[in-house]
Amino acid sequence: MHPAFSVIFLTTLLGAGQGLFLALYTGQLYALANLLPDQSNDFYIMGSFLSMVLLIAGLIASVFHLGRPERAWRAATQWRTSWLSREVVVLPAAMTLTFFYGLFHYLGWTQSLFTISDTLPVDATLVTGALGTLVSFLLFLCTAMIYASLRFVKAWHTPLTVANFLFLGMASGFMLAAALSAYMGTNLVAFYGTWAVVATTLGAISRGSSLYRNSKFRCKVDMQSAIGVHHSQLHQKAQGFMGGSFNTREYFHGKSDSFLLMIRYIFLLMVFVLPVLMILFAYLSESVRLPIAAFAIQYIGLVLERYYFFTEAKHPQNLYYQSMA
Amino acid sequence: MTQLALVIDLNVCVGCHACVTSCKEWNTSGWAGPMTDQRPYDEDPTGTFFNRVQTYEAGVFPDTETYHFPKSCLHCEDPPCVPVCPTGASYKREDNGVVLVDYDKCIGCKYCSWACPYGAREIDEKLRVMKKCTLCIDRITDTSLPESERKPACVLACPTSARLFGDIHDPNSNVSVAIREQGGYPLQPEWGTKPANHYLPRRKTRIQIHEDELVRADNPLKKEELPSLPDGGETLDDVAW
User: What is the pLDDT of residues B97-134, one digit of tens each?
Assistant: First the structure.
């Protein structure tokens, strides 16, 4: 498939935004269980704001993918059948909950509303955060299922696609939380850094598995089945046009194998190796800048990862344009 | 339920592209708006088409067969492009099974084109909506036209009658009979999309003739080996009555 930068930025920005929200709420739960010292509201406000900015940036990126963005509201109607429509429904919900999570922290509504079992004080932020966590996971599912549900595109049609979107989004989000706490001088860098390394490792396992899987399989259909002439020697002589068409532009990346191999090594390095090493050094040297750099490098790596994700997909319609390939 | 479809006979298609041009002509002039082109008379021309004719060659020279392969939307009975549409712009008509795009609802997200394994959908770069073969829906449902003209433009244009049009759910329709009797097949059946359009394979028509069928060996009335008449005059056979 031809990599669309609008979708590359949409998925990576949303992933980091949702991951950051999950990181904030994880921190709040740990603090609630007295495993971490209580954080100031400022950290949650700043974090929610950053998460909102990322979600909105992702939404803006998605607009560039649409031919008719002025009709985008219609995309919420087919949630019964379309994962894309479900994403369109869940994304505003995630944005709303993130907004209110930040707002409730800003307003200081952290006094408990009621107590469960005399031990768990429940306040407005806890409830909003729980709902936001649920919706964030749902949004990861929707975004990934847009690709994983396409049964003709074998490289995407696997649960590993969902695992990749989830773990890589969480990795960048927790990495951003570590960078944010380093920037704001809170004592959560080690906590978020550890979680970021865990998520990055999980992502390395799932992405590595999908890379291995995609290097193995063959397409279910071949040219013989595509045109119904069962002859072992079959060659295309004419595509039906002299110039290009949508079919030759949308489904072919047009990049050389060596270029893609280079992209693959670079993204493996930038997503999985460098950020983990940088977080490790940041932990040892208590550096403020290293976690920020770790997030930045991982994010750029994720953009390349998503680019590679599109080029990995071999669409069966390409069988009809073999004189292009 | 009716399922309208095309049956394309690869045995007769000569690859003249008359279906392509008539399709473009009819559908770019209709009420649904133009099918736009970019740089039509310049370098690297491109544009929107509902139908293309490709050419394939099977075998190794000199023992080759050329296949002209018209390719358009197959109007699947289980169309994968319809459920993925986020706006409901893509739909399958209940009454005749034609898969259509509502150009007023389409947001041009291209997701349906990713979901179609046949590459049947193309985005109109100017109008920024997804387009595809409509089986000339404005023509086949127009009751003001005489019955014989209620057919897609490509079918009417085909000079070799390689394109048949009809209801594949009616077992006695011309298309059903053609599929049944001439080995009609769908494309990429592995996916289970059940394409309504079918293709008829290349067929060889050779007659087996034996020598004794040419020579009237056992015919008592045979003329070839009769001794010629002594006077060389006329026989009764030569007389016109």
Answer: 999 999 999 999 999 999 999 999 999 999 999 999 99
State whether ipTM is beyond 0.95.
no
Q: How far apart are CA B164 and CA B182, in angstroms?
A: 13
**Cα–Cα distance measured from residue B222 to residue B238, given in angstroms and rounded to the nearest whole number:** 15
Condensed to tens digits (0 to 9), the pLDDT of residues A201-252 reads: 999 999 999 999 999 877 889 999 999 999 999 999 999 988 889 999 999 9
In CATH, what number is assigned to the domain containing residue A145? Answer: 1.20.1630
- A229 vs B201: CB contact, 8 Å cut-off? yes
What's the domain count of chain B? 1
Cα–Cα dist A173/A16, whole Å: 4
Which residue of A246, A252, A320, A322 is the best one to mutate when testing the B interface, meaning the one whose CB has the most B CBs within 10 A?
Answer: A246
Domain containing residue B142: 4-75+135-200
pTM of the model: 0.90
Contact: B86, A150; criterion CB under 8 Å: no
B93 close to B82: Cβ distance less than 8 angstroms: no
Q: In chain A, whose CA is at the least distance from the CA of B37? A: A245
- Interface touch B188/A221, C-beta < 8 Å: yes
Question: How deeply is A17 buried, as exposed, middle or buried, from its count of CB atoms within 10 A (0-12, 13-18, 19+)?
Answer: buried
Partner A contacted by B50 (CB < 8 A): no
Nearest CA in chain B to A316: B117
Q: Which CATH number belongs to the domain containing residue B52 in this structure?
A: 3.30.70.20
For residue A311, give its domain range: 5-66+75-219+244-324
